[in-house]
Amino acid sequence: MRINIIHMGFFYSGGGERVALQQARHLRERGHRVRVYSPIIRRDRCFPQLLKDVNPEELMRSIPSPVFREALAMLLCSLLPIGLQKLRDCDVLLCHSQPSLWIGWRMNQLFGIPYVGYLHQLTTFIHKRLDIASNWASKADFLLLDGLLGKFCRPLAQNLDYMSHKGASRLIFNSNWTRLRFQQAYGLSGDVCYPALDKIPEELPKRSRENMIITASRHYPWKRIDLALYAISMLPNPKPQFVVVGDQTPHTVSLKRIATQLELNEYVNFTGFVTNTFLTQLYSESKAYVQTSIQEPFGLGPVEAQAWVHQPLFGVMLVLGRLYLMANRVFTRNLMT
Known about the structure:
The protein folds into 2 domains: about 1-190, Glycogen Phosphorylase B (Rossmann fold, 3-Layer(aba) Sandwich), CATH 3.40.50; about 210-335, Rossmann fold. Helices cover about 45% and strands about 15% of the residues. It contains 13 helices and 11 strands. Strand 6 (about 170-175), helix 8 (about 175-185) and strand 7 (about 190) form a beta-alpha-beta unit. It is globular and about 65 Å long. The protein starts with a strand and ends with a helix.
């Protein structure tokens, strides 16, 4: 089968980006002809080795703009007939979130090509997360899109969003949680297909567990990494080392400030982007993985962490559960104040 995968943009190393790229790899291994397209690709910022292996193609020539580069690329591909001819040579389109679903709907209307939506979450510019971190820095491109789609053109954007999801031949959700959100918002449902993991060696390396806890996610406000910092501060001495994996963003400055205020600088390590090999090493050497994101499914991190457990799972989950309860108490107190 000829399958063309469309993703909104490969310009940071996030879970959704990795899922799309891994899908291309696994489908190719099964004998399908798979090509991957996106409005914008930043090969230096999004899983460089994985991008090299999959080799996605841009729908349009890169915009030489010093600001709003990603936002402009997504808007232009959504509004203009850019890149549509590239997408015609396939039996089905696999669309990851917006504006990919909208591009798939246009391809279906123009050329009759069926499209399938693989959905990670509701379109967040239209369906807002809890506004508990609005004063923290976020990516300028997202702020522009939020102003256009979430405020100025929100009624029109929501109608087009619903129409492009409803027109799909099939909707596939990355979790039951995501499917429930779409059922509540749009009355739409479909199948659940959890993201796949890379094959884990049958015999894991025998490494001793260090007094270390890890979290791996984008440094954005809704990931609530700050809750983990507060939870770490409540633990008795000697405190574990808290390893925060992920590309640094403007929000990282806020997280470092909180770590300083809580006198945790000697216990917190912001690694920046790490290779997959080093990430698996951290998984296998840490005592626990903690996930604190809100209004989104857990993602790949907790599942990958559990896959690399070579000691009894109970001990790992006990620490994770303790941190989770502490984080919930802090989260509740923040909302009340």
